[in-house]
Design brief:
CATH architecture of the largest domain: 3-Layer(aba) Sandwich
Radius of gyration: 20 Å
Oligomer: single chain
Shape: globular
Number of strands: 13
Order of helices and strands: EEEHEEEHEHEEEEHHHHEHHHEH
Strand order of the largest sheet: 8-13-12-9-10-11
CATH topology of the largest domain: Hexokinase, domain 1
Helix content: 25-40%
Number of domains: 2
Largest sheet: 6 strands, mixed
Structural class: alpha/beta
Strand content: 15-25%
Distance between the termini: 10 Å
Length: 315
């Protein structure tokens, strides 16, 4: 077979497409399209193929989507797209289409990351016989895991981003209490995502007696870098809460194989993250702080980690 494979990482904001040559894990001709510009993934994929014009049309594809994948029908969590996997396969004239959760694809990529694709955030050496936890904030909060088997690594698809967010101090309790008056359920994703940054900012302004302000996540991170006090508090709380969730996940999974943080936000604010209280909060589990002190954490800084996992599905 000489036709390339088609891969796509579809989030709540962007759909990232690329081609993969047979037997390769290297993504070719990547292109980022805005989901809002298309009615469905078929239209986005056709636009990509029209622009790239491969010599041969893909016959197999693998899509990662930011939603649960529990059958043929997919309903994206943070976007309006709803589609049938079989219908997409038929409309794109594919022999095979695999659709997985977006962080399942990221988890599949973890064993393929090189040293240059990771930045260490404390801890000891990974235990290769133990699970690896994978999580990351972007448009939403993705959570997955890898479990070692005799045949390699098995990914676990989860919706762990929607666990209830817990406060670790009085200030966080105030923020979460305020958010609970506006949300039916304050999940981890409600604070640990791009929209979550805005939610934290809105709550902290309200607690200071200030009116809401229209602001984007990128503007908040720019303000924090420029020394803005409130934006700095938002980012500090964001990092600390991420430490709480990552530590909970590591304990739940027994992830002495390590924790990998991916997603679109942390690599963009990496210096601030590395200087933050994330690691202290990650380890702050009372009698189990020593257990967590040994768990290595890395930030995945590969430009398209999901592409690595998807490439293996079409190889």
């Amino acid at each position: 077979m000489t036709a390339p494979g088609l891969i796509a990482d579809i989030g709540g904001t962007n759909a990232r497409f690329a081609l993969v040559s047979p037997g390769s894990l290297h993504a070719l001709q990547p292109l980022v399209l805005s989901c809002a510009d298309f009615p469905d993934p078929v239209a986005a994929a056709r636009c990509y193929l029209d622009r790239i014009r491969p010599a041969e049309a893909p016959r197999r594809a693998a899509f990662a989507v930011a939603s649960p994948v529990c059958g043929d029908r997919v309903e994206m969590t943070n976007h309006v797209w709803r589609f049938s996997i079989q219908s997409v396969r038929d409309q794109l004239d594919l022999d095979r289409l695999d659709v997985v959760n977006d962080f399942t694809a990221v988890a599949l990529a973890v064993p393929l990351l090189g040293d240059a694709d990771r930045v260490a955030v404390g801890g000891g050496a990974a235990d290769p016989a133990c699970p690896v936890a994978v999580l990351g904030p972007g448009t939403g909060l993705g959570v997955s895991a890898l479990v070692p088997t005799g045949a390699g690594w098995h990914p676990i698809a989860t919706e762990g981003g929607h666990v209830t967010m817990a406060a670790a101090d009085d200030r966080e309790a105030q923020v979460l209490g305020w958010l609970r008056t506006r949300q039916d359920h304050v999940s981890a994703e409600r604070v640990l995502s791009g929209p979550g940054l805005v939610n934290l900012h809105t709550a902290l302004r309200a607690l200071s007696g200030l009116p809401p302000e229209a602001v984007t996540p990128s503007e908040l991170t720019r303000r924090a870098a420029g020394g803005d006090r409130l934006a700095g508090e938002v980012l500090d709380m964001f990092f600390a809460m991420l430490g709480t969730v990552a530590g909970n996940l590591a304990l739940t999974l027994g992830a002495r194989g390590g924790v990998v943080i991916a997603g679109g936000i942390i690599p963009q604010v990496l210096p601030a993250f590395l200087a933050s209280g994330f690691r202290r909060r990650f380890e702050d589990k009372g009698r189990f702080c020593t257990y967590l002190q040994a768990v290595p954490v890395h930030v995945a800084v590969h430009a398209y980690p999901a592409f690595l996992g998807l490439a293996g599905l079409v190889a």
